[in-house]
């Protein structure tokens, strides 16, 4: 017998009607109206309401989300969680990124462009280290907001003010971070802005832990450890600390923060806390947010090939470089979207906890490398030729990005039967690391000019698309 939770309101009404027909001896051809007693009508309504409630996802009824959405404040509630290892969701619908999350991304367009500009103006090993050390903290702040919106998104005034507040702090961070090696005031403003942004997000987590018990233990563990380890940045305030020591402190602090995030949300922490309710993520929303940030980075390829009209007046070498840069960005987007090229695959966030963590971690080197390489590629439209440093940054960035995309594809679990495609997964993907290595080594050919370098890179990236594309022909067989 089906449980009540599996009975729809229509089935309830139909069963009661059939029951009355059977008792009254009426048949389908009898047009005499059937009168139900008031008590039967009330019971029918009660059962209908109960059936609707049980039909909501996993028994979770959320009438407040179907009411008038015009409100100022709402109690933050976890949108999904694990209960003794069983996933429970408050809504049974796909979530997309909120409009204010996309508004946040617009600010990151400017911040990332500013960081890349600073690197390309004076390329050196020290500048590259600084670029990585100022990019990683901005990524951490974006990740904090992503997690809050993923788990507790309710789009009320409090959350909107939080986004605006953090964005205002990021404006300070984005303006001062490129100058940290020049002025102690810029260093202090940068570190202070970062610490305030992280603490603001931690306070939001702490507040939400009182409002909803589903993520409470892990949230509070994260708040305590994250706030504690953010104090590692305090030595950066002091002018007496040498630059090398500050670099070491910043690098250690960034690594510790990454390790802390992994620990707080890993199975070991759940066992340590003896938590019945543990955190879960909305996978579709998470995928959309990472893809949105990746698109921001690819936008760096496209902005400079148009701004300034450097490729104007007919078809010339600069026009060719602009088009090749566009093709490279298009290929990178295609490769990211199609991952390993399988007909049916399992996303890393669904595959296992380990692939989920690796999926999140691999985005930072992926973003950093493509942002730097893409900026040089786009800037080449306004220049006659590359300098040696620009050549190495371009090829090193794009080559490293392609290798990261290879690792990104390996994290996806294929569900295709053997022979579904002409080439198996590893054979389809093997050209990505090969292409990445060749791209990194291109600067060794000193005789190549800017147009020739971009032409070779474009051809290699297009070939990486053609290899899995050829294997897709098996689908039509």
Q: How would you summarize what this structure contains?
A:
By secondary structure, the chain is mainly α. 65% of the residues lie in helices and 3% in strands.
Description:
Keywords: Membrane, Transmembrane, Transmembrane helix. The protein is mainly alpha-helical and 477 residues long. The chain has 2 domains: 100-280, no CATH class; 293-477, no CATH class. It is built from 17 helices and 5 strands. Strands 2-1-3 form a 3-stranded antiparallel β-sheet. The longest helix is centred in the N-terminal third of the chain and has 28 residues, at 125-152. The protein is globular. The two termini are 44 Å apart. Mean pLDDT is 82; it is low at 1-68.
């Amino acid at each position: 017998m089906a449980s009540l939770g599996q009975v729809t309101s229509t089935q309830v009404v139909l069963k009661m009607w059939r029951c009355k027909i059977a008792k009254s001896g009426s048949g389908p051809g009898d047009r005499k109206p059937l009168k139900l007693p008031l008590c039967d009508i009330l019971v029918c309504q009660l059962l209908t309401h109960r059936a609707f409630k049980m039909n909501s996802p996993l028994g979770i009824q959320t009438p407040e989300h179907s009411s008038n959405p015009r409100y100022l404040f709402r109690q933050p509630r976890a949108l999904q969680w694990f209960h003794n290892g069983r996933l429970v969701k408050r809504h049974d619908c796909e979530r997309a990124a909120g409009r204010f999350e996309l508004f946040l991304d617009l600010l990151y367009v400017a911040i990332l462009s500013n960081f890349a500009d600073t690197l390309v103006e004076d390329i050196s090993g020290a500048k590259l280290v600084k670029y990585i050390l100022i990019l990683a903290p901005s990524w951490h702040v974006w990740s904090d907001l992503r997690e809050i919106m993923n788990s507790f998104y309710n789009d009320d005034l409090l959350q909107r003010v939080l986004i605006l507040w953090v964005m205002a702090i990021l404006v300070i961070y984005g303006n001062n971070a490129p100058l940290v090696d020049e002025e102690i005031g810029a260093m202090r403003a940068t570190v202070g802005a970062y610490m305030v942004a992280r603490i603001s997000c931690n306070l939001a987590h702490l507040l939400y832990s009182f409002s909803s018990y589903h993520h409470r233990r892990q949230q509070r563990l994260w708040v305590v450890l994250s706030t504690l380890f953010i104090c590692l940045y305090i030595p950066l305030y002091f002018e007496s600390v040498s630059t090398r020591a500050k670099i070491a402190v910043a690098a250690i602090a960034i690594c510790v923060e990454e390790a802390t995030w992994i620990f707080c949300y890993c199975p070991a922490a759940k066992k340590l806390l003896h938590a019945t309710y543990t955190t879960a993520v909305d996978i579709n929303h998470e995928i959309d947010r990472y893809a949105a940030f990746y698109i921001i980075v690819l936008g760096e390829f496209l902005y400079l090939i148009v701004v300034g009209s450097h490729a104007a007046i007919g078809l010339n070498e600069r026009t060719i470089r602009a088009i090749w840069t566009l093709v490279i960005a298009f290929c990178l987007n295609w490769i990211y979207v199609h991952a390993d090229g399988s007909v049916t695959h399992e996303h890393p966030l669904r595959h296992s906890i380990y692939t989920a963590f690796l999926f999140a971690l691999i985005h930072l080197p992926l973003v950093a490398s493509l942002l730097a390489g893409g900026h040089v590629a786009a800037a080449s439209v306004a220049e006659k030729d590359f300098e040696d440093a620009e050549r190495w940054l371009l090829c090193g960035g794009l080559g490293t990005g392609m290798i990261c995309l290879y690792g990104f594809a390996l994290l996806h679990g294929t569900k295709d039967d053997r022979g579904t495609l002409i080439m198996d997964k590893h054979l389809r993907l093997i050209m990505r690391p090969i292409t990445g290595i060749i791209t990194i080594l291109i600067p060794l050919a000193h005789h190549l000019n800017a147009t020739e370098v971009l032409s070779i890179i474009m051809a290699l990236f297009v070939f990486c698309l053609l290899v899995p594309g050829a294997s897709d022909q098996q689908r039509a067989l």
